[in-house]
């Protein structure tokens, strides 16, 4: 851009300030789209009316979000923005298009609800029509998957600067050269979340619709501004493409690597089990906190950022996350002090699902690039057992690993607000039920095959209650769980002596230095032995009922690896 003759490149006169940066943004953004103009025209975008902003900088997106969306800059420099009525995912409104190329691979049912191709076309056109009414349309081109052999090119098209910055943080950001040579995307997200779906359209159950078409490799979002829908949409696509197209295993897991030995550990676990906390280890580098692929050559992160929960966040408990909340990060639905702009992480008046999205390089001990060309040395499956009967650590046989991977057990603690007095079991297959695309058995078979091929031990670690169920027992201390994880990493546990644990048939160590004997065997920790036997049999029965969904599709050896009540 040519500067006015009277203007120094270092001083912007006040009278020019309002339009100076914006005129540069307009010229720069439209030029950058260049050869892709034809694509947007063919897709139905009114190029004479809308202004496309492609891969805008965080600073530009901050300005637009503050100017147009009511966003706030927090005291630490993060952008505070709000997702409106929807503050979490809408799983009942998620649809997969039923079409020839993918219909035989999809696990159809309550997680993957069918949508016909015509309805998808109606919603896609509705989304583009809405985007055409906006003055600014944001485009972000990035990658999913750190390994170039298996990555896909993702294009996000949206109307909120907040959504563009969110995906700038969550996808892998291209270099200038990669962006110039980006070419055709492999997957496109049309996010018109401010505009509702027509609930009278065939197959619509509400004004919200989140739908994926694997033939077109497109996703359409209507009626929800919750940014997490885009993140999980990309994961769903990778959960389909990696096994089907690339023959690699996509996983809902965290992963880290030892600084000294270079040993990789995968952590599976549902919300509240300690997956994020335990994978953040000062002696190890973080590969990623949520989504990975176990490939033929190693392990790589799918994402370029982290999407951390903020409820009750403190610098003392989680310093890495706390310090990552700075310029470039997005705080989502977080209450703040209107005078000081200091976030209040204890205030859940908007939602308990407060979040922060930040680039992974904001974590000091992140492994950049987020891939390790080495096979895993350990797999840890995490559960939080509020019934207080599962041991804090068990060594699983390959069949037991498949069984517990398919079961995906944890439990929620009783909630006083609805009068629930008992722990609530949660079974989320493959530790990722809401995002499963193929039949769970397919992922389980791939996991078992890779574990067998590379001789990878698997450990079930319970971060829940001991000495009694929730209300009478106590939660296993974090320092004890960390000591157990350290024993896994050092190889100490592999050489331990084991005994068989009752109903579940688990192999539990008889001793670990620094861990009390009564903690290792839950039966010893319970004063009331009869009550313990009742609870362990009750939980075993819950496992059996939950597993009926998969038992017809697994080998008999896996079926027999679960709890036995007779």
Automatic annotation (TrEMBL):
Keyword field contains Kinase: yes
Protein EC: 4.1.1.49
Source taxon at top rank: Eukaryota
Protein's pathway: Carbohydrate biosynthesis; gluconeogenesis
InterPro entries: PEP_carboxykinase_ATP, PEP_carboxykinase_C, PEP_carboxykinase_N, PEPCK_ATP_CS
Alphabetic keyword roster: ATP-binding, Decarboxylase, Gluconeogenesis, Kinase, Lyase, Nucleotide-binding, Pyruvate, Transferase
CDD domains: PEPCK_ATP
Pfam families: PEPCK_ATP
One MF term in the entry's GO annotations: phosphoenolpyruvate carboxykinase (ATP) activity
Record's catalysed reaction(s): oxaloacetate + ATP = phosphoenolpyruvate + ADP + CO2
Keyword field contains Repressor: no
Gene3D superfamilies listed in its UniProt record: 3.90.228.20, Phosphoenolpyruvate Carboxykinase, domain 1 (3.40.449.10), Phosphoenolpyruvate Carboxykinase, domain 2 (2.170.8.10)
Assigned GO CC terms: cytosol
BP GO terms, sorted: gluconeogenesis
Similarity annotation: Belongs to the phosphoenolpyruvate carboxykinase (ATP) family.
Full protein name: Phosphoenolpyruvate carboxykinase (ATP)
